[in-house]
Amino acid sequence: MHYSGWKVIWEGLTGNKGWKPVWREPDPKPEYDVVIVGGGGHGLATAYYLSKTFGMRNVAVLEKGWIGSGNVGRNTTIIRSNYLLQGNEPFYELSLKLWEGLEQDFNYNAMVSQRGVLNLYHSDPQRDAFARRANAMMLAGADAELLNAVDVRKLYPFLDFDNARFPIKGGLLQRRGGTVRHDAVAWGYARGADAEGVDIIQNCEVIGFDISGGACHGVETSRGKIRAKKVAVVVAGSSSRVMAKAGMRLPIESHVLQAFVTEGLKPVLPGVITFGAGHFYCSQSDKGGLVFGGDIDGYNTYAQRGNLPVVEDVCEGGMAILPLLGRLRLLRMWGGVMDMSMDGSPFIDKTPIDGLYFNGGWCYGGFKATPASGFCYAHLLARDEPHPTATAYRLDRFRSGRMIDEKGQGAQPNLH
Asked: Residue 163 has what pLDDT?
């Protein structure tokens, strides 16, 4: 079914009797060309581009829960490409370009809103670091503007510019950044992949791999054995547990990342802002609530919930720049399980096991990377060579000394 304004009007006038399910509910077939383990944003995007762009349609996506139950429905919806390092910036700029044409591409309203992302700075050295990052962004074809305090005050006059500890001296603005409706991304990619013939199989947990002779020939699932020429794992915070079933140990730790939303307000926050002296980011949803988050919990966990110390830490960061936050009531909070890599950058690569591929280690950057991650993973699966913008995302980069340490924190996943 093709969606359009005229279709909405017609259905409204005729009792909304013509709508069809967004995707099919097929039973798994005995064998596929590609089995994608993980029905989150990245897995569905991979299936979509694999079928539409690369013409591989004998594909299945296996999801242990329901579509949208994982991190793709548990994030704070921000998209941006304001990175510094060569291994990252071109990739995230590709992703932002795909976001810009996404709704027209798969004919689904994902509510892409390019309202701008502003990273605040609070000292002269931080200004210099932001200027360097802006130059790297522009060299990669992205947009970047370095603002002073007067410029920022014009955009956000209600910020605490004269905070004694963290005075706001300016910011790095990317106007093309913004937010996207997270669950609509999952639904849109699922619908698009299904229309191309991909089987999306929910409530189908992978419990093992069929590996013999150094090659992967399929997966064992809660709904039976499924053979495949290629198996592509993309399961975010569950990466270590799933790949352990194939006998692999990954350079990844799992941590919970909490997010929060307040009661609804009239429009007050036109774009996305981030705190430069700590970890806090905030935007306003279309329903009026302020959506914000901060650091991960410091301990390893697979639980999709958080704890009160992080609530306090995040609110402290918010109050340092946005005092009005202290007057609001918190409606709800939730957690997503982050696959934190040793250098803070992801992996899109073949594994040493023939026919088994891995995509993970996205840390905080998974949602914004969804289109490019899916496109580059599909490229790898279809052609058995990395996409030009993802050549640095190799599993062996720690052994070869080619780390991509965007934050300069070293090999400490809890700091990335």
From this structure: 92
